[in-house]
Design the sequence.
């Protein structure tokens, strides 16, 4: 017997969709169209222009008569997190979703995700630590028009995904729909990271909350077009490393996470990333930089060892009592 599909009524929540753009007028037009053509109608689409030198004129003209479309131009920042944050600040609704201007949504993206949404979303209630404040989905990866296989992507996608999120950005920004109040509680995206600002935010979120997942490709991720920030630097691991390191060094994990196993996992991953990066530096004949990262790895491992030993002593004392 087929499972009855959950219906979406007119009491269903409204969604604010944030589309950041910089100098991609044609792609921005296609991205916005994919939002406004969704089967789920209760939305607004905010195209946030990061001070483009080639503004998205076509999108503005094409959708000017659609009351769900809004255009917001800001001074150029060059920081994707800052652009998305300005969009959220302008948003009207309690649910927010993101779509990078070089990506596309498939027509039932929002509908399929909201079919799996927790009851609190419909009631406008944030049930922290029980309901998942974020739902993501699979993506179709295109590079120069050809589908890129994702068979090797074997990470946890639903529930407690923190340890998977430590390793890489396992949640695509364009797949996300989430509670605005949780986004704001977390402080939004960092505005000083040019790359991996999404990785850093999902680390903070997944360390505190479970996430939900629709195991269906609902987004087309377009890569290889030469306008991506990741292509500007050739590799992005150093940006992930910076985001994770600052969460560790500022004590964010210790202040916000009560689960010691998660703190230990963060420390192990950070030390491992330090050593991998150091090895790359040595391979490229940068011994001083390599030594710097090796010392950082040593420091994290020493802190972790002290913490583990202290926990062992406390456990022993309790048993003796």
Sequence:
């Amino acid at each position: 017997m087929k499972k009855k599909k959950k219906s979406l009524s007119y009491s269903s929540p409204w969604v604010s969709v944030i589309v950041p753009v910089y100098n991609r007028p044609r792609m921005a037009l296609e991205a916005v169209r994919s939002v406004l053509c969704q089967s789920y109608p209760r939305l607004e689409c905010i195209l946030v222009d990061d001070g483009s030198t080639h503004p998205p004129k076509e999108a503005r003209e094409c959708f000017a008569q659609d009351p769900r479309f809004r255009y917001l131009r800001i001074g150029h920042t060059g920081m994707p997190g800052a652009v998305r944050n300005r969009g959220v600040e302008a948003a009207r609704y309690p649910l927010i979703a993101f779509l990078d201007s070089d990506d596309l949504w498939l027509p039932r993206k929002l509908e399929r995700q909201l079919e799996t949404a927790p009851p609190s979303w419909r009631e406008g209630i944030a049930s922290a630590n029980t309901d998942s404040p974020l739902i993501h989905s699979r993506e179709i990866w295109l590079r120069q028009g050809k589908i890129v296989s994702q068979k090797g992507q074997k990470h946890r996608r639903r529930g407690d995904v923190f340890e998977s999120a430590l390793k890489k950005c396992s949640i695509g920004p364009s797949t996300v729909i989430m509670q605005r109040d949780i986004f704001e509680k977390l402080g939004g995206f960092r505005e000083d990271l040019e790359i991996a600002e999404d990785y850093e935010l999902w680390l903070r979120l997944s360390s505190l909350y479970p996430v939900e997942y629709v195991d269906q490709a609902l987004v087309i991720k377009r890569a290889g077009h030469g306008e991506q920030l990741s292509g500007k630097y050739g590799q992005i691991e150093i940006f992930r490393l910076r985001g994770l390191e600052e969460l560790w060094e500022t004590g964010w994990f210790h202040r916000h996470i009560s689960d010691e196993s998660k703190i230990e996992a963060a420390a192990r991953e950070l030390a491992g990333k330090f050593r991998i990066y150091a090895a790359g530096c040595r391979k490229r004949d940068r011994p001083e930089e390599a030594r710097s990262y090796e010392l950082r790895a040593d420091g994290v491992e020493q802190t972790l060892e002290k913490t583990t030993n202290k926990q062992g002593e406390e456990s022993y004392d309790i048993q003796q009592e």
